[in-house]
Amino acid sequence: MRRTPMIGGTVVCAALALSLSACGGDDDGGSKGGAGAASLQGRGPITFVTGKDRSGYLQKQLDGWNTEHPKEQVRIIELPDEPNDQRQQMIQNATTKSDAYSVLNLDVVWTAEFAANRWLAQLPKGEIDLSRMLPATIATGQYRDKLYAVPSTSDAGMLYFRKDLLEKAGISGPPKTYTEMWDDCAKVRKLPEAKDADCFFTEVNKTESMTISAVEAIESAGGSIIGPDGKPALNTPQAKQGVEFLIGAKKDHMPKEAVTLDTEGGRRYFQSGKLIFQRQWPYQYGLADSGDGSSKVAGKFAVAPLPGPNGPGVANLGGHNLAISAFAKNKATSLDFIRYLTGEQAQRANLLATSQAPTVAALYDDPEMVKKFPYLPVLKQAIANAKPRPVAVKYGDVTAAVQGEMYDAVTGKKPADQALSDLQSKLQPLTAQ
Amino acid sequence: MTTTESAPAAGTAAAGAPRGRGKSDVQGTRRLAALLLSPTLLVLALVIGYPVLAGFRESLYARGEGLDADGFVVEGDRFVGLGNYTAIFQGDRADAFWNAFSNTTFFTLTTVVLETVIGVAMALIMQQAFRGRALVRASILVPWAIPTAISGLLWRWIFQADGAANAVLRQEILWTADGFPAKAAVVIAEVWKTSPFIGLLVLAGLQMIPRDVYEAARVDGAGPVQQFFRITLPLVKPALLVAVLFRMLDVLRMFDLPAVLIGVNQKSVETLTMIAWFEASNLRYGSAAAYATILFLYIALIAYLFVKLLGADIIGEARQRTRRPRAVRPARAGRRAS
User: Which GO terms describe its biological process (chain A) (predicted)?
Assistant: First the structure.
């Protein structure tokens, strides 16, 4: 009677030891997979995990790769449209250590969280040609000075303005400072056709867009939400100046329903001709300029860098990066595929087909591209000066706190000082370490 | 069933025989019942019991709390006992919790009361015999057939600043911003969506009421209002209580409608499930499980109180109801046979 459990125990121990060592082996290959290029091994079929491809162009781009690499086929795994759902599914896949996902298409703000949780394979800096890319975009793929993701598309806010109205009012160019912008509005509003137009719009609804607006306002004033030392820095005069700009803009210059308008709502508002100035992403350019009657402002607007308190302002950096899942097989193929998709040729084709902003600098100066997308020079300048959103492992909590406090400030529930000191104390524990 | 039906046919001699084996038969039946039920109980334990216990176990742990020197998240779970629960009731998070708790309770009270009134009215209309009744019944059920997320989108479109709601009201109400109008928007959309459910269940209850009861009442000179409060309401009560209980349990765990219509992280419409979701999506599974467990207990308490205070006779009535047809069936079967 006594022997059986003991034998059982030994068997269990042996099995455990076996499985543990097996697990350990996997972990070595997976989580520490960034020690050097040598660890990115394995060739064969891989998957590319990305949000819903609205343009339908992605498959064509992959077809190009697949015909050249018949033994290393890439299959698309399309995740939902909503960024939060995409993140959720990628995290689920990572926490179960599944090898179903190989190459991940990550929003720039997720890099820190994914890298800190050892869900990404570290990439060999020397083996990827980053020199051709815009420096600001490369920074978004790094965590603690190590490369985890390669920028594939970029994005930055720009100032859309009604060129026709400004010209009519005798204004020579777009405003460089907030004061100039408000003055221009006063002049334009004297025109009979712009009597009821609203002056300015940037998103202030309680979503991720609020964080973006806050970053732009605070960085333009020379402050930052999280300082270079990784600590929240909202107890500065610059941060206060930034928030006060948002409060004043919402109160005096934005449409009344501003707090309910999302990105698309803002676009509809601008396209209906009711706005003089608007902070918006590049994607709006083509839609607002289309001559099919959906936009009343086609041919009547232009873009410029965002204004700031004393000169040009700072835009927020958006975009997507490609990374390799730490648990993926065939990491060598994955790296090649990332090189292919972030290369100049693929990015040029993608820009033409989807008008997504590239990360390869040369494309912004290419006369053929500029002819098709006249906003590219402005966008290049905006990206060059752009600042990322707070880099934090607990980004979800950080952005929720920023959204809440900024919303309370902008809607007048709290004075700016109060909101900033509340945010400072909320962010402190989230960014400790 | 086959035995009861064949017994009268076999005659009195056969009917006498089983009466003699009564005791052992009861035991055998019980054993058979237990045997037949055990797969169901096993499945219930697996799909309900296990998740509840696993969720509770998860709520006692925390993970991913700190970073090591290289900036990596420290791996492994740490047992924190009731730490996740006490954290919910402390500091900032206590405000968020009580806000979500009161939102959840507010939505439950307002929507269930409105739904009940509107649902009963719908059932009474559907019950009437008139031309095009089928069309009315079908159209009343349309909102219930639409997925919640879709109806959330639909209502968001109606409630946007330049949407249909403001056009009809000739007002400029910011429904979808974080504020009291957002609460109202959620209540309206929820009531629109789920009143048909109550209507449907009440209609089923109404059709169980024999017509001759109303005839008798009419002969006695009872008006429509009297008929409603003295006959319809008491007789439809069991069905109505079940419908209301279902709606209460459902609305207590409401998530997708406010999330789609107004958005997550909005103080004015944040419910307990939304906080649990937020915690889980920020990888604090222990804390999320703690919120979910608290919500589970709250729902269980409400359901218990509801059944105890109002519906103690839900089960009693149901038993009588099931007993009655059983007594009737052999007679009917006999009549059909003859």
Answer: maltodextrin transmembrane transport; maltose transport
**Chain A nearest-CA residue for B173:** A257
Domain boundary among the residues A386, A405, A421 is at A386
Q: Are residues A285 and A412 in the same domain?
A: yes
Per-residue pLDDT of chain B (338 residues; tens, 9 = 90+): 444 444 444 444 444 444 555 667 888 888 999 899 999 999 999 999 999 999 999 999 998 778 888 889 888 888 998 999 999 998 778 999 999 999 999 999 999 999 999 999 999 988 887 788 888 888 888 999 999 999 999 999 999 888 899 999 998 899 988 889 999 999 999 999 999 999 999 999 999 899 899 999 999 999 889 999 999 999 998 889 989 999 999 999 999 999 999 988 899 999 999 999 999 988 899 999 999 999 999 999 999 998 888 765 555 555 555 554 444 444 444 444 43
Best CA proximity match to A294, nearest among A280, A273, A277, A266: A273
A16 within some domain: no
- A242 and A357, same domain (yes or no): no
Q: Residue B326, Cβ neighbours under 10 Å: how many?
A: 10
* DSSP-based three-state secondary structure for A243: helix
CATH topology of domain B93-314: MetI-like fold (1.10.3720)
Q: What is the pTM of this model?
A: 0.83
Q: What are phi and psi of A275, to 5 degrees?
A: -120, 145
Angle subtended by helix axes B272-281 and B285-309, to nearest 10:
160
Per the domain annotation, does A4 fall within a domain?
no
**Residues A366 and A396 reside in one and the same domain:** no
Record the tokens describing residue A361, joined without a space. Answer: 């600098």
What's the rounded Cα separation, in Å, for the pair A223 and A216?
10
**Are B266 and A206 in contact (CB < 8 Å)?**
yes
Pick left, alpha or beta for residue A301 (phi over 0 → left; psi -120 to 50 → alpha; otherwise beta).
beta
**Given the structure tokens 């900036």, which residue do they identify?**
B71
Same domain, A304 and A404: yes
Q: Is A416 domain-assigned?
A: yes
Smallest CA–CA distance, residue A144 to chain B, in Å, is: 7
Domain count for chain A: 2
Q: Does A263 touch chain B (CB under 8 A)?
A: no
The answer to whether the Cβ–Cβ distance between A116 and B71 falls below 8 Å is: yes
Tell me the C-alpha distance between B87 and B53, whole Å: 21
When scoring B166, B171, B176 by the number of chain A Cβ atoms within 10 A, the one with the most, hence best to mutate, is B176
Q: In this complex, is the C-beta atom of B68 within 8 Å of any C-beta atom belonging to chain A?
A: no
DSSP-derived letter for residue A51 is S
Cα B143 to Cα B314: distance, rounded to the nearest angstrom: 28
CB-based contact A118 B265, cutoff 8 Å: no
Kindly state whether residues A176 and A263 are assigned to the same domain.
yes
Which amino acid belongs to residue B328? Answer: V
> Same domain, yes or no, for A397 and A350?
no
Residues A186 and A305 placed together within one structural domain of the fold: yes
- Residue A23 inside a domain? The answer is no
In order of B7, B207, B241, the CA distances from B324 in angstroms are 19, 17, 21
A353 to A54, A57, A287, A347, B54: CA distances (angstroms): 11, 7, 14, 10, 49
Quickly list H helices, B45-90. 50-58, 83-88
Q: Do A108 and A202 belong together in one domain? A: no
- The domain of A77 spans 46-155+318-386
Decide if B73 touches A, using CB distance below 8 A. yes
Q: Check A397 against B265: CB less than 8 A apart.
A: no
- Coil/strand/helix, residue A321: strand
- Looking at residue A117, which CATH number applies to its domain? 3.40.190.10
